[in-house]
Write a structure and sequence with these properties.
The chain is an all-alpha fold. It contains 12 helices and no strands. The protein starts with a helix and ends in a 6-residue tail after the last helix.
Length: 275
């Protein structure tokens, strides 16, 4: 495998690509056109590359001890120094990629990058591990709106929905790996409250995000939004019940919250013009 591919893998391309795609589609939905869409995508991608590369640079020794052969640095496919330099460069480019949209937008996307890096260190293994997700995911859709011509203010419901979605994703993301993370010294909020309460937190936060996206915008909710909210209300208890039947294994609940997270992303993308 080439070093370039290994470097890309070290950036955590799946979640980073998903966030970038969602924000790019939101940019189209709220009215960005042409180079504006490209610029939003580039700025958001820089935040995701930054947090992914810095994460693997910081965790290199722990990943080696844990035998994480899926990690390019731990497996020797790419050097720790290369990943660290890539993380530094991508971090420094974030404010510059935001500047074409004005100082407010540049400050907004810079704060996204700062809080993402605060998750990598030092908050990842603390009771405040959810805080960077709340702030960064709340600011991402805000950046997309502020970056529009005229720099309109983002609606409060959009920021709240992004924050709730990000916080729910934090709890959902760690559900399958709680034991492995705890064994290697990661003690974030989900690890401290345990699998059962992490399932409750993920489900509650994502349901709150769904309801915010459906009932937050002005005017009556759409039929599609009501169907999405109904689906979230049905899917989450089914996932919880299935997890109980599987003797507490979180896999079923993990899949349920991921499905609701996808519903939320679709609702976010198709929230329409927000200004």
């Amino acid at each position: 495998m080439s070093r370039a591919v290994a470097l890309l893998r070290a950036s955590h391309p799946e979640p980073g690509g998903a966030v970038t795609l969602a924000m790019t589609l939101l940019a189209i939905g709220v009215g960005h056109r042409g180079w504006g869409i490209v610029g939003v995508a580039a700025a958001v991608a820089a935040t995701q590359l930054s947090v992914g590369w810095v994460n693997d640079w910081l965790d290199a020794d722990r990943d080696r001890v844990a035998g994480r052969r899926d990690k390019p640095v731990a497996s020797g496919e790419v050097s720790r120094r290369t990943v660290g330099v890539a993380g530094l460069i991508s971090s420094l480019t974030i404010p510059f990629l935001g500047l074409p949209f004005g100082p407010t937008a540049a400050g907004c996307i810079t704060l996204v990058g700062v809080f993402a890096l605060l998750y990598d260190w030092p908050l990842k293994s603390t009771a405040l591990s959810v805080l960077p997700y709340l702030v960064a995911f709340g600011l991402l859709p805000a950046f997309v709106v502020v970056a529009l011509p005229g720099h309109p203010s983002p609606p409060a419901w959009l920021i709240a929905a992004g924050a709730l979605l990000g916080a729910g994703a934090h709890f959902a993301n760690v559900l399958p790996d709680l034991a492995d993370d705890a064994a290697t010294g990661v003690r974030g909020l989900p690890h401290r409250i345990g699998a059962a309460w992490s399932q409750v937190a993920a489900a509650g936060l994502l349901l709150a995000a769904t309801l915010t996206l459906v009932f937050g915008p002005a005017g009556p909710p759409s039929w599609a939004g009501l169907v999405a909210a109904g689906a979230a209300v049905v899917v989450l208890p089914i996932g919880w019940y299935a997890a109980r039947r599987m003797h507490g294994r979180p896999v079923a609940m993990f899949r349920a919250v991921i499905l609701v997270a996808l519903i939320d992303v679709v609702l976010l993308i198709f929230s329409g013009r927000v200004v």
